[in-house]
Amino acid sequence: MGVIPRIRMVIREILWLRFSPEGFHAIPSIAHTGLFHWVKWHNLHMNYPTKRSTGMALYLLVSGLGSWFAAFTLAREGYQLAISGKEPSCNINPFFSCGSVMQSPQATLFFDTPNQLFGVAGYVAVALVGAAMLSGANFKRTFWVFFTLGILGAYVWLMWMFVQAVFVIGYLCLYCMVVWAIHIPLWWIFLPWALKHSILTSSPGLKKLGARWLPYSWILIVINYAVIGIAVLIQFPLLFSF
């Protein structure tokens, strides 16, 4: 058989497998046995769920957009404060003062760049990952590892900023607290989900840990919220008297 007729046969049978009711479960012919085995091997060695996780995709999309909006608002009002001295909308009382937090040294921790600009870039990425998952996209393990490290890094950074705002700066930032409120459950829910679906590691033990942990992830979320709430009440006992 010549090269061109053989190519035509392979294309025809690939299309037949693609659109036949049996799909790739159909019996392949000799014309593309190698291709069939490659596809089968590839599917068996994927490092991420082959089925789209709509719930997590929506959660990433909504969380990313919510945090992005808060970070964008901070960036816009911080710019207006620096240029014209306009008071931010979240300067509510002597305790809630976003302007005071934005003018502190901690607000430009890296490269003399406002923290909220990193939030604008980072959270739009989270939203895009969620949107891509809704569209049926799959990502390799390397991507998920870096994505998880990014969420962890943001969590550590936000908790550091919480300590600085409450115990060092002495002011609360309302939009910052919105980001805290969104990111805390994002981290504590995404991590066990990722372990459960073996997208970070193939360890059966960690997969079992993630499966057992995920239904009770709300406990760590409540504890995290409680620590922040108690710290705020201790440091600002007159907060709700205004």
Labels describing this entry:
0% strand, 9 helices, mainly alpha, 242 residues, de novo design (two linked rop proteins)
Give the strand tally.
Answer: 0
Proportion of helical residues: 55-70%
Treating each run of at least 4 consecutive H or I residues as one helix, how many helices? 9
For the record, the CATH class of the largest domain is Mainly Alpha
How would you spell out the order of helices and strands? HHHHHHHHH
Estimated share of beta-strand residues: under 5%
Number of domains: 2
Compute the separation of the termini in Å: 88 Å
Shape label: globular
Give unreliable regions as ranges: 16-33, 35-47
* Overall mean pLDDT: 80
Structural class comes to: mainly alpha
Q: What would you note in describing this structure?
A:
The protein has 242 residues and is mainly α. It has two domains: 3-44, no CATH class; 54-241, Up-down Bundle (de novo design (two linked rop proteins)). It has helices at 3-19, 33-44, 54-84, 98-102, 115-134, 141-169, 174-196, 204-213, 217-235.
Helix and strand layout, with pairings?
Elements: H1 3-19, H2 33-44, H3 54-84, H4 98-102, H5 115-134, H6 141-169, H7 174-196, H8 204-213, H9 217-235
Helix pairs in contact: 3-5, 3-7, 6-7, 7-8, 7-9
